[in-house]
Amino acid sequence: MGLKDIVWQRIIGEVLRPLKKSREWKVLVVDHLGTRILSACCKMHELVNEGITVVENLTRVRQPLPRMEAIYLVTPTEESIDKIMTDFGESSKPHYKYAHVFFTAACPDELFQKFCKSSAAKYVKTLKEINISFLPIESQVFSLDYPDVLPNFYGNIQQSRAKCMERMAEQLATLCATLGEYPIVRYNRDHEYVAEFTQLFQGKLDAYKADDPSMGDTPEKFKSQLVILDRGFDPISPILHECYFQAMAYDLLPIENDVYRYATNSGPAQTEMEKKALLDESNDLWVKLRHEHIAVVSHEVTTELKKFADTKRMAGKDRASMRDLSQMLKKMPQYQKELSRYSLYLHLAEDCMKRFKEKIDKLVRVEQDLATGTDADGERVKDPMKNIVPIMLDQDVSPLDKIRVILLLTFAKNGQSEENREKLIKHANIPAADREIITKMSRLGVKIDDKDRSKRSKMERRDRSGQVTYQSSRWIPVITDVMQDTIDDKLDTKLFPFISGQQSAGVGIPSVRSARPKKYGWGKDKSAENRTGPRLIIFVIGGISYSEMRAAYELSKANKHWEVIIGSTHLLTPELFLNSLRNLDSPSE
Asked: pLDDT-based confidence at 508, cuts 50/70/90?
């Protein structure tokens, strides 16, 4: 069962279904995280089926509905609790008849006492912690919805870091509780704060285990593992231009909240109009295409379109275009919904290729050479500056793209002198406001200045040259090796130590009979029905790239006995990552 299904079934089973009554509607009140969780895992019609008539935002002015009961799904913060108390304050009539309050994480004792002593307490019929304080982004991807983590975790203010680590530890622990996992925990030792965070997280995890002793009950040999990394372990993957469909689209196109907007011709007059589409797992074609290389996406869409046309006895071409689709829509308007689906992905692929040819075709080969240290023929790159200088002088290349190349060169050289760095910045005409992006990368534990004596450990990379299909995608994310080595029980214990008191479980290949208890097992999901083994959970402090997300799916597919779940504080595009580095000294809550 995918993460989205697990979370939705948990909300149904612990929040909605126990309160559902025939012919009685309820109001659902949510804060920011509650809104994001619901948006990620369900549609409005599904809420209506569970007796919810309206969803309200806790922080906005709401119309009182004193004859209806309200379900609150909120984060246990002082702000949220104050809002609920205001809804049932003594100075005015109560907003709702009764309140059923569900906290997404453990409520701090002082806030719990404050709430229980308030006048609102007499209206509360349910008060429960459901421990879902993360976003199920995809079936195997989660996020803590914490995009401000870089200045708070890697910044210079200790108080901000302490609050940041407390928040992350609690949220990550709720993920394990939701999955019913009590994993063996390992961490990347290179960054001093990662070890501190890991210990804090283990304490939270132990508390959940104390509340539910059955959590993670599996034979020791088949124990799940959780590996905690900081973003500095691989600074290359988040800044490369990717040529795989999902990663490429999110890097090059203005996709916001997974919504892609595009212009298309519609109606008998073929009038141009804007359309928008949600890129999520509810669309099987998107799931099939998102991890494909852009070189084959259009062909894949055409193949699927031809299959559809054949089933409807329509004339389909081996190589369809937008014009062909328009003609098919004119002839078969009853299939407009289905044909529009193919039109969407042809538009998306064409948009990607247009931006690729306009902006990054000239960059990709140079970036891959710098990232891998070898050229397309496998020969070591001896003089990288030969190809870099023309890019620095090219006025058509954006400052951020030039910064990406300068950083890749710096990584390849394991740091460079301030003099050489300044020369590159001057040639590239980088604006003053953006220059600090390069030097601030060092705060992630990455060597930028060649005089820096700090040494970050490098794990031994696997030889994957035989797996490279496309010269534009020769770089393999480091996290791929971390995941494979963990599954094979070969991950270096010096670089990735176990938390104190734990040791390797000899994870090996589990038997078919080893099974994780299905604590929240409502419904059935085809993608997971054959899963009987342990999980590998990867958590990255500071964001994950779409290429790293793809790696988790590929590893799961290649290792049938393991399910890889990958997550982070937030999802990264290269632009978001670089902007976060620019604002590294601006912590926020």
From this structure: very low
- Rounded Cα gap, residues 91 and 403, in angstroms: 57
Confidence of residue 536 (pLDDT cuts 50, 70, 90): very high
Asked if 550 and 531 count as a contact pair (C-beta separation under 8 A), the reply is no
CA 366 – CA 360 distance, rounded (Å): 10
Q: Is the dihedral of CA 498, 207, 31, 279 positive or negative?
A: positive
Residues 6+ apart with CB under 8 A from 116: none
Q: Look at residue 500 in the predicted model and tell me its pLDDT.
A: 65
Secondary structure class of 278 (helix, strand, coil): strand
- State residue 270's pLDDT score: 59
Percent of the chain past pLDDT 70, that is, above it, reads: 87
Residue 507 near residue 225, CB atoms below 8 Å:
yes
Closest of 236, 339, 276 to residue 545, by C-alpha: 236
d(CA 24, CA 21): 5
CA distance 94 to 97: 7
Name the percent of the chain lying above pLDDT 90. 70
Query: Number of C-alpha atoms within 13 angstroms, CB side, residue 180?
Result: 15
Q: Does residue 196 come out as left (phi exceeding 0), alpha (psi in the -120 to 50 range) or beta?
A: alpha
Q: What CA–CA distance (Å, rounded) separates 234 from 120?
A: 49
Q: What DSSP state is assigned to residue 507? A: -
pTM here?
0.90
Residue 323: pLDDT band with limits 50, 70, 90? low
The H or E element spanning position 343 is helix 336-355
pLDDT, average across residues 252-281: 84
Give the single-character DSSP code of 499: P
* DSSP one-letter code for 14: I
The per-residue pLDDT for 501 is 60
Cβ contacts of 435-443, under 8 Å, gap ≥ 24: 436/581, 436/582, 437/403, 437/578, 437/581, 437/582, 438/403, 438/406, 438/407, 438/410, 440/581, 440/582, 440/584, 441/235, 441/407, 441/410, 441/581, 443/154, 443/155, 443/584
Residue 509: its pLDDT value, please?
Answer: 40
Q: Which residue has the higher pLDDT, 520 or 379?
A: 379
End-to-end Cα, the chain, rounded Å: 33
Which among 419, 428, 562 is positioned nearest to 486, based on CA atoms? Answer: 562
Taking alpha carbons only, the member of 234, 205, 138 closest to residue 495 is 234
Q: Residue 487's closest CA among 536, 527, 528, 447?
A: 536
Task: Report yes or no: 144 and 171 within 8 Å, Cβ to Cβ.
Answer: yes
Structure tokens at 132: 């879902």
